[in-house]
Amino acid sequence: MAANEEEAVKYVWEGAIPLQIHLHKSEVASHPPPPPALVLAPRIGYLPLLVHLIKPYFKDSLPPGEDSIWFDYKGLPLKWYIPTGVLFDLLCAEPERPWNLTIHFRGYPSNVLIPCEGEDSIKWNFVNSLKEAAYIINGNCKNVMNMSQSDQEDLWTSVMNGDLDAYTRLSPKIKMENIEDEFSRKASVSSPQSRQGGTEIDVAGQVKTARVPVRLYVRSVSKDFENLEDVPEMDTWDEISYLNRPVEFLRKEGSNFIILKMRCTVLMIFTWLYGKCFTLRDAIESLLPEYIRDRAQTSGEEGEQRTTDASDVSQETRGELKLVRIQGIEMKLEIPFSWVVNNLMNPEFYLHVSVLVKEPQR
Amino acid sequence: MDSAGEVVNDGKITLEGFTVAARAFADKWKRHNLSFPPWSWIPLINRTMLKKEEGYLSLEKIIILSSLEESAEEESLDVTADWSEKEESVDLTVLVQNVEDEAHYYDYHIVYSASYMVPMLYFRGYSSDGKPLSLDVIKRDLPSSSVSLLLESKWTFITQEEHPYLNRPWFKLHPCGTEEWIKLLSESSSSDGCQIPVELYLVSWFSVVGQVVGLKIPREMLI
């Protein structure tokens, strides 16, 4: 399990979306119009960082003047500060490969999008998100504020270049506390001492509350659908509910005490048997209580003993979680949340979750 | 992390506490701050969620006329200097029209930050034709004391960010350090060093933050 977790982080960093980028027709000043640019975009990166790769395709076609670059997908202006992978997971219910985007060099929609002044804006946004994540995890941003300017620069550069090795070397300097549970081995990336077999447990056996940085993007449909292709297009960002709030969960100490210092696979079995795992489903339901599933309907699938709630409200009138995507993966909701966080988070320590729901009926 | 009561010890506040504090703040404002319109509570209800208890405070269409700012002493001196160079008879209708053209409208939202567990002030300015004002223009509408604070202090700086719920660019007052000065306020205001009661949390918060954007609250609200 330990080896797999480092691999998972590698897959996340290597994940990329093939883009086919078209110049907006109003900006085509050459005949014939230029063919689209084909670019492989890192999932954990940001669209404006790709401009230096894209612009050469179009520079002969552009009208004269200054550039103010922005992208749209089927007319929807894209928020440049959302990682590319998250935009793709959210906006393409049925993944489109290559993903067809339109680039504009003029007419920045400043009534809708906050300004982007190139790499500096993106770096500022990244560092700010890192500070916010630090505040959530550690209770303060001191770790980020105390980083030297050059360390911050190097960290940002490693993200920009998708250089996981450089990032791994630098992340101990961030001094982010571990988001721990029985399954977390990512702890080894941010702090050397947990490379040993066990997890660090508070010997007094206290129950601690962990706060985990999560950004939840919720898209809803009013009717059920057979295929993802049938999910209607998004016209405006108002159709997305964006929740930037931490998930809080108690780290249960009871069962841990028995299994201190054991290998991960054994930990998994013990904890599963005792049924005390905080799952991805638990995390999402804590943020979206309207989508809490009726327990009576879950006992068959999960193979766990649960008390069945006699509930008069049927599943149809409740909302329903149809799809949960993280880093392009359609998640099984029973996965332990701490594993999800430690392996699938973005470099700024945020877990971005795209959710497709069927609205509750009122 | 503890939540004994609604206001957490170290100057932060829970979501539930914010909802209570917001209503208390709006009520007191309505009673004591008659020169301003009242704040409205905007609940977060949309297709996806029914969060009746969550929302934010909104105060909109506040007109700020640069010539009426108390710190505009210097500005008014310049103005009179200008006029003395012009013709002696001043056309009053022209004067009034100029004042209207200079009218800037401001919207203020007090939004809870779940990450930092403190309130945050979002605001935007626009002219009478609805066009958004740039930060440079807005800074000219702020009290001059704020502008120097903005330059010097680490906690009062303004950034342009997306409104957490409205998908539009707004300006935000940076929250870092909020809980520290709330703690200071609560320590100095009560004899036994207790924390601020939740009903007064936003009042105390706004007594500081509001000043940065030129909104003062009357002392009666602090009781």
TrEMBL record, chain A:
Any Pfam family matching the protein: ATG5_UblB
The keyword Cytoplasm is assigned to this record: yes
KW Cell membrane (keyword) present: no
Domain of life from the UniProt record: Eukaryota
Sequence ranges assigned to domain Autophagy protein ATG5 alpha-helical bundle region in this UniProt record: 119-175
Residue span, Autophagy protein ATG5 UblB domain: 212-355
Family: Belongs to the ATG5 family.
Protein name in UniProt: Autophagy protein 5
Species of provenance: Brassica napus
Automatic annotation (TrEMBL), chain B:
Entry keywords, A to Z: Autophagy, Transferase, Ubl conjugation pathway
Database matches in InterPro entries: Atg3/Atg10 (IPR007135)
A Pfam family the protein falls into: Autophagy_act_C
Gene3D superfamilies: 3.30.1460.50
Stated family: Belongs to the ATG10 family.
Name of this chain's protein: Ubiquitin-like-conjugating enzyme ATG10
Organism of this sequence: Brassica napus
Source species taxonomy: Eukaryota, Viridiplantae, Streptophyta, Embryophyta, Tracheophyta
